[in-house]
Automatic annotation (TrEMBL):
Pfam family, one: 2OG-FeII_Oxy
PANTHER family with a match to the protein in the record: 2-OXOGLUTARATE (2OG) AND FE(II)-DEPENDENT OXYGENASE SUPERFAMILY PROTEIN-RELATED
GO molecular function: dioxygenase activity; metal ion binding; oxidoreductase activity, acting on paired donors, with incorporation or reduction of molecular oxygen
UniProt organism field: Heracleum sosnowskyi
Residue span(s) of domain Fe2OG dioxygenase: 166-269
Family: Belongs to the iron/ascorbate-dependent oxidoreductase family.
Protein name (Swiss-Prot/TrEMBL): 2-oxoglutarate-dependent dioxygenase AOP1
Summary of the function given for this chain in its UniProt record: Probable 2-oxoglutarate-dependent dioxygenase that may be involved in glucosinolates biosynthesis. May play a role in the production of aliphatic glucosinolates.
Length: 317
């Protein structure tokens, strides 16, 4: 019997973000932009790989800091609160008992990482603050390059410029603790992100799976030099459904603990509208203008949580 077809795993598109490919106006930039748009339209995500401008030292340092954070007493971690649901400490949830996460809002602003560090370590932790700033700066730059490529390709760069002024970055540090043999393997339930864009970075232990449009789960192998760039619900509405937010989940097959990091963009104090350039007679506008943070509040209601596609329920036309 031939098992070769059955065992064939689909792969995510992999795109190299070298200095050369990310220099605006060059042919490499244009070629890379085409790959980015095609990957986002077909998968809602892709793997961005780095050969230069992201170091193994920074990868190791940021996960060392992450471990230190989770080793703090629970009462300290619980000080990480937020007005926005799930943007602060999340953990001890019966459905996903392995999951624990902390959030740093506005992480790229001068006070973002500093305020959080002082809250967690009143006597200071310079290494944490510094690595968080360095890491999130690299990821925010990646986000902006991707968004520039997408918006230029769609002829809506001026609309993106406006959004960028209102973009805030949430840094989420995540730990899935060791699993007892009889415990659930579900690390995080299947979901689409509520963000505009999400960029994920994993540490050694696999677990993240992303669903393709033909309903296959792709396991994304961790690599110290790659990031998963993924569209969130807000991007789907903004692009009039051209780019869809993919379903993803975490399955913890082994018993090892797992760490991952996510940088999520949110649009604050500005109504998100589908640019008129993305609508014509064949493609009518499919989403009403909406406030991103009000959408998050809606998602955390019973109605929002139960919905198969909360963004369509919230502002779909
Ligand atoms: O841990 C991961 O790799 C994924 C986390 C995730 O999907 C999320 O925080 O929204
Ligand atoms: Fe997610």
């Amino acid at each position: 019997m031939d098992f070769s077809l059955a065992s064939k795993q689909p792969n995510l598109p992999c795109i190299e973000f070298s200095k050369e490919n990310t220099e605006q106006g060059t042919t490499s930039w244009l070629t890379t932009s085409k790959k980015v748009v095609s990957a986002l339209e077909n998968y809602g995500c892709f793997l961005a790989t780095y050969n230069d401008n992201f170091s193994l030292d920074l990868h190791n340092a940021v996960f060392e800091s992450t471990k230190q954070l989770f080793d703090l007493p629970l009462e300290t971690k619980l000080l990480n609160t937020s007005k926005t649901p799930s943007h602060g400490y999340v953990g001890q949830e019966p459905v996903v008992p392995l999951y624990e996460g902390l959030g740093i809002e506005d992480v790229t602003t001068p006070l973002g990482a500093r305020t959080f560090t002082n809250l967690m370590w009143p006597s200071g932790n310079e290494a944490f603050c510094e690595t968080t700033c360095l890491f999130t700066k690299v990821v925010a730059e990646l986000d902006q390059v991707v968004m520039r490529m997408v918006s230029q390709s769609y002829g809506i760069e001026n609309h993106y410029e406006l959004l960028l002024e209102s973009t805030s970055y949430l840094f989420r540090l995540i730990k899935y603790r060791q699993r007892q043999e009889k415990e659930t393997t579900l690390g995080i339930v299947p979901h689409t992100d509520k963000s505009f864009m999400s960029i994920l970075h994993q540490h050694q232990v696999p677990g993240l799976e992303i669903k393709t449009t033909d309903d296959q789960w792709i396991l994304v192998d961790p690599s110290p030099s790659s990031f998963i760039v993924m569209a969130g619900d807000a991007c789907m509405a903004w692009t009039n459904g051209r780019i869809e937010a993919p379903q993803h989940r975490v399955i913890m097959k082994g018993t090892e603990e797992r760490y991952s990091l996510g940088v999520f963009t949110f649009i604050r104090d500005q109504i998100i509208r589908t640019p008129k350039e993305l609508a014509d007679e064949e493609h009518e506008v499919k989403f009403q203008p909406f406030d991103h943070y009000k959408y998050i509040d809606f998602y955390y209601t019973d109605e929002g949580k139960k919905s198969k596609c909360p963004i369509k329920l919230y502002c779909g036309i």
